[in-house]
Design goal:
By secondary structure, the chain is an alpha/beta fold. It folds into two domains: about 260 residues, Glycogen Phosphorylase B (Rossmann fold), CATH 3.40.50; about 210 residues, Rossmann fold (3-Layer(aba) Sandwich), CATH 3.40.50. The chain is built from 17 helices and 18 strands. The protein has a ten-stranded mixed sheet with strand order 3-4-2-1-5-6-7-10-9-8, with helices on both faces. Helix 11 links the parallel strand 12 and strand 13. Helix 2 crosses helix 3 and helix 3 packs across helix 4. The longest helix is centred in the middle third of the chain and has 21 residues. The C terminus is likely disordered. The protein binds GDP-alpha-D-glucose. GDP-alpha-D-glucose (GDG) binds next to helix 1, helix 12 and helix 13. The site of GDP-alpha-D-glucose (GDG) has 27 residues, from helix 1, helix 12 and helix 13.
């Protein structure tokens, strides 16, 4: 069996799964590698004054983890900059928050090159390479430049935006051109695949050949691979003493009250201010319920180095304060907003105690909290999931109460309907969703992706190594020449790619 090499920005070792930093990829990464030989490569989370390229290797819970440190400028330009101040907001439809700066793009290119230079010598001929998420989009191209001809797949955990938004990114075409060095590109939903395909066909002058998309003189396979939970692991966590204790504690605190819970990294994509406005609206519409509900919002801080996150934190805390100021009494507050991290076992217990799981992102690749909430429920008395239509999870979890998070009245009505829902209906909806959570778990996701990567790369090696002349539609703005290592070289002149609108022949940055 081939080794699997998983590459992501951050590597969270399995031993810290229970109380690790909050984040979906951290949860999925180690689950993807258990049962496979291979290793997980990425950033250690530490910075140094200058880049050393030294690899720290350790074995954690049978997963070999290899990490490198980044230099401080890399962290600012690549991580806080291009990845989290440009790509993250844009891919979550927040062009108003998208900040691009030449140094960010340069840092992004530099770190991807450094990852490739350090990783390439570790790759053996039979290995499959699986790269994760928006931090590392050009890594496949950089590995090809290092001479790596192995199958390389890429999975995007966040949404792929509609072309109308994506084209607002300076040098957007260069980013997509780099993706054509992958054999397989995976997205969370069919909607994201369609948005990517629309871009390739309409903006890059590419075409569909059966199951493959061709552009930039190359072809790849693009498909949807909805991520799931490590369901057995999460169910076991839910039976742990820590989970039991957290559940009892919540129930005791909410005695005679119905609990509503939200668990989200403090991120503007998660729709926290909009959710609080929905809860406020619910209290206004149903003042008789003020003493009968308790809304607990767990919101650990995230990416505090990025300004938009500091602003969001202040907004959320102010709104929470406003709601309690209006509705609390000396012995009662309708909501609690907790800006800290809990262990995953505690989260499982908290989910179980809650009658409603409130998951209302404005835009989300998948959203694992929705699945965790369902997995944690008591089958005899399950709670109700209220889920945003803009979470990838809404495509699968159609038995949730699906809402538009921008409409406070819809949130308020859904809360009302969920609290009034009879047991039989709660059980029916929960069973349907739980079937999906069990069936489409993280192993199904991993195995489907790996099988598709193996299949996608079953083509003549020559196609990867010495690309044929690009097969483009005439109006295609495209690179004029592609060198044998996969680097795009541009020649300007009338009618050439470099003179096409929207195409800037500069390095990313
Ligand atoms: C990205 C995509 C996609 C939250 N608070 C705590 C905590 N968490 C855990 C949750 C969950 C994870 O973090 C969050 O996962 P999500 O999927 O909800 O969101 P992102 O972090 O934005 O993840 C997303 C995901 O990648 C996977 O592909 O679904 O769309 O944006 O597991 O439980 N964990 C702990 N303490 C907390 O306080 N330990």
């Amino acid at each position: 069996m081939s080794r699997l090499i998983v590459v992501s920005n951050r590597v969270t070792a399995p031993e810290s799964r229970t109380r690790g930093p909050a984040g979906g990829l951290a949860v999925a990464g180690s689950a993807a590698l258990r049962e496979y030989s291979g290793f997980w490569f990425g950033w250690s989370g530490r910075t140094t004054e200058t880049f050393t390229g030294e690899i720290e290797r350790r074995l954690a819970d049978d997963v070999t983890v290899m990490t490198i440190d980044l230099e401080e400028a890399d962290f600012q330009e690549y991580y806080n900059g291009y990845a989290n101040a440009a790509l993250w907001p844009l891919f979550h439809y927040r062009i108003d928050l998208t900040a691009d700066d030449r140094s960010y793009g340069e840092g992004y290119e530099r770190v991807n090159r450094r990852f490739a230079e350090t990783l390439a010598p570790l790759i053996q001929p039979d290995d499959l390479v699986w790269i994760h998420d928006y931090h590392l989009i050009p890594l496949g191209r950089e590995l090809r430049r290092q001479g790596v001809t192995n199958p390389i797949g890429f999975f995007l955990h966040i949404p792929w935006p509609a072309p109308q938004l994506f084209t607002t990114l300076p040098r957007h075409q260069q980013l997509v051109a780099a993706m054509f060095d992958y054999d397989l590109v995976g997205f969370q939903t069919a909607e994201c695949v369609a948005a990517f395909e629309a871009y390739v066909l309409d903006e890059a002058g590419g075409r569909r050949d059966g199951a493959r998309l061709s552009a930039f003189g190359r072809s790849l396979r693009a498909d949807a691979f909805p991520i799931g939970l490590d369901t057995p692991d999460f169910l076991a966590l839910g039976r742990s003493p820590d989970a039991e204790r957290a559940c009892d504690r919540m129930r005791a605190h909410g005695v005679f009250r119905q609990l509503i819970v939200g668990v989200d990294r403090l991120d503007y994509s998660k729709g926290l201010p909009e959710r609080l406005l929905g809860f406020e609206r619910y209290l206004q519409d149903h003042p008789e319920m003020v003493r009968k509900v308790l809304y607990l919002q767990i919101a650990p801080s995230s990416r505090e180095g990025v300004e938009a996150y500091q602003t969001l934190r202040a907004n959320v805390l102010a709104l929470g304060g406003r709601i309690n100021a209006a509705w609390a009494e000396m012995d009662h507050a309708p909501m609690l907003c907790v800006n800290r991290n809990y262990s995953r076992a505690e989260l499982a217990g908290i989910y179980r105690a809650a009658r409603i799981g409130l998951v209302t992102p404005l835009r989300d690749g998948m959203n694992l909290v929705a699945k965790e909430y369902v997995a944690a429920q008591d089958p005899a008395d399950p709670g109700v999931l209220v889920l945003s239509r803009f979470a990838g999870a809404a495509r699968q979890m159609t038995d949730a109460l699906i809402v538009n998070p921008y409409a406070p009245e819809e949130l308020a009505d859904a809360l009302h309907a969920a609290l009034a829902m009879p047991l039989a209906e709660r059980v029916r909806r929960w069973e349907a969703m739980m079937d999906g959570v069990v069936r489409d778990d993280v192993r199904t996701w991993r195995d489907r992706f790996v099988a598709a990567l193996e299949a996608a790369s079953e083509r003549p090696v020559s196609e990867r190594q010495t690309p044929a002349a690009p097969r483009f539609a005439a109006r295609s703005p495209r690179p004029d020449a592609i060198d044998s290592a996969g680097a795009y070289e541009l020649r300007s002149g009338p009618g050439s790619a470099a003179s096409a609108p929207g195409w800037r022949p500069t390095a990313l940055g």
